[in-house]
Design a protein that fits this description.
Layout lengths: L9 H17 L8 H22 L4 H27 L5 H27 L8
Helix pairs in contact: 1-2, 1-4, 2-3, 3-4
């Protein structure tokens, strides 16, 4: 049985776990005082989750695939911002490794979802 809501998507679940970690990191010092950095990172990871939610409600797989691609682009931004967080010592090396594993897992799940959507287009509504 397929996903009934966007929350059922494993890609969304892992991205949301990463989002929760990002929210915690950006709420603590010293990162919390760097408003531009925090806003950028929160927006980027939020975009991954939001695009999966919006794409899930689209009529055709092709339309959903567009939003998955946007989510992948936002995830690339998250990757760079995690590097910056490490360089600015907002996170430890261990935190970076954990966040990066979640980011990489999200990326693989998004690519798998994109592959599925690209290979299984059927006429009419997908659900």
């Amino acid at each position: 049985m397929g996903a009934r809501t966007f929350r059922d998507l494993e890609a969304w679940q892992v991205a949301n776990e990463l989002r929760q970690d990002v929210l915690a990191i950006t709420a603590r010092l010293p990162a919390a005082t760097d408003h531009r950095f925090c806003t950028g990172l929160r927006d980027a990871i939020g975009s991954v989750c939001r695009n999966l939610a919006e794409g899930f409600e689209r009529y055709h797989h092709r339309q959903f695939a567009f939003f998955v691609r946007v989510a992948l682009e936002s995830l690339a931004e998250v990757s760079d911002q995690l590097e910056e967080a490490l360089q600015r010592t907002y996170i430890t090396r261990d935190e970076y490794e954990r966040l990066n594993r979640l980011r990489e897992r999200t990326k693989q799940l998004l690519k798998g979802l994109l592959s599925h959507l690209s290979s299984s287009e059927v006429p009419g509504r997908r659900r």
